[in-house]
Amino acid sequence: MADQGKVDPMHQFEVQKMFDMFHVGNHEVAFTTSALWMVIAGLLLWVFMIGGMKRQLVPGRWQVAVEGFTGFISSMMNANIGPEGRKYTPYVFSLFMFILMLNVLGLMPFGLFGLHPFTVTSHFAITGVLAILSFAIVLIVGFWRHGFHFFSLFVPHGTPIWLMWLIPVIELVSFLVRPFSLALRLFVAMTAGHVLMKVFASFIIDGIAAGPAIGIGVGLPSMALMIGISGLELLVAGIQAYVFALLTSLYLNDAINLH
Amino acid sequence: MDVQAASLIGAGLAAIGAGMAAIGVGNVFGSFLESALRNPAAADGQQGRLFIGFAAAELLGLLSFLIAILLYLKAA
After folding, report:
1. DSSP letter at A27?
2. If 0-12 CB within 10 Å is exposed, 13-18 middle and 19+ buried, where does residue A191 land?
3. Mind telling me how many Å the CA of B24 is from chain A's nearest CA?
4. How far is A1 from chain B (nearest CA, A)?
5. pLDDT tens per residue across span B25-72
6. Measured between alpha carbons, how far is A250 from B14 in angstroms, rounded to an integer?
7. Cβ-based contacts of B51 with chain A (< 8 Å)
8. Do the Cβ atoms of B54 and A239 come within 8 Å?
9. Alpha carbons A224 and A85: distance in angstroms, whole number
10. What domains can you pick out in chain B, each with its CATH number?
11. How far apart are CA A204 and CA A217, in angstroms?
């Protein structure tokens, strides 16, 4: 923990227990701030989707927004997988909307009496589980459809015989790194962005604390930069959610269509 | 040199990788924009690949940031 007067940029990622729930063996399962924000994201998504399902022939604004998101993911799945992708669109859509909502909820600008927004996806445990979920679906779909022929994924077309000792090993390693890279990408993007914003905010606070001259000289440019960086963080939140969904659809295409 | 000082110096050196990632990401978007201005009609179809390329370049830069953060938090 930071001592008085020092800004701690890592405090925003601290997970606090809210109340105990039940035992599993030796471990306590508690309801934490992470779980709270996931419930908030789920409720907001539920309200958003319900509001857009009125099925008017001439859609109102809310329905247009919901259909914008569903059409976006649906066309992405169609472009990457083809007509077989329709089965997996609900999963990829849920994944995309959940990650997007969690990312954006972490950017909300309030910080009163110790209450602050918590970015659920800034923990490797959360993004790791999402990545493992995607990877498990890819593996199950691949082996269910193709059986052991799935391993032909690691031998690209036109591989000469004298490279057969090297290429499948490289392909296998690159395949196994996929869930790790999915999780790491989202986690580090969120953590780095939020640490950056806290550091710039600390410049403003420390500048004001050092007197009016330094306060204006350092605080005003930092404030302008903060506004720009907050906009960039919104963009990164959207892009990282899209990239997670896009790569999941590409890995599903590898499993479904092999090559 | 004690371990803490070495960790902090290592963290600073690892952060150089983040600057190199900036060059990489700029390369991806720059090539896309350059070719999109030559053939605007075909540009929209390639947007998906643009973001895949961006994600890959950014991931490697974020890996070096991760090493820097690990060393920094171990030292401080």
Report:
1. E
2. buried
3. 16
4. 12
5. 999 999 999 999 999 998 888 888 898 888 888 888 888 888 888 888
6. 31
7. 239, 242-243, 246
8. yes
9. 44
10. 3-75 (1.20.20.10)
11. 10
Query: pTM here?
Result: 0.88
- Closest by CA position to A236, among listed A195, A179, A180: A195
Cα A147 to Cα A79: distance, rounded to the nearest angstrom: 25
Q: Tokens representing B22? A: 């900036």
Residue B39: enclosing H or E segment and its boundaries?
none
Give the pLDDT confidence of A17-74 residue by residue, as tens digits.
888 888 888 888 889 999 999 999 999 999 999 988 888 888 889 999 999 999 999 9
Assign residue A25 a region: left if phi > 0, alpha if psi is -120 to 50, beta otherwise? left
* Min Cα separation A28/chain B (Å): 28
Chosen for mutation from A1, A13, A185, A194 (greatest number of chain B CBs closer than 10 Å) is: A185
How many CA atoms within 13 Å lie on the side-chain side of B41? 0
State the DSSP string of A29-57. Answer: EEEEHHHHHHHHHHHHHHHHHHHT-S--S
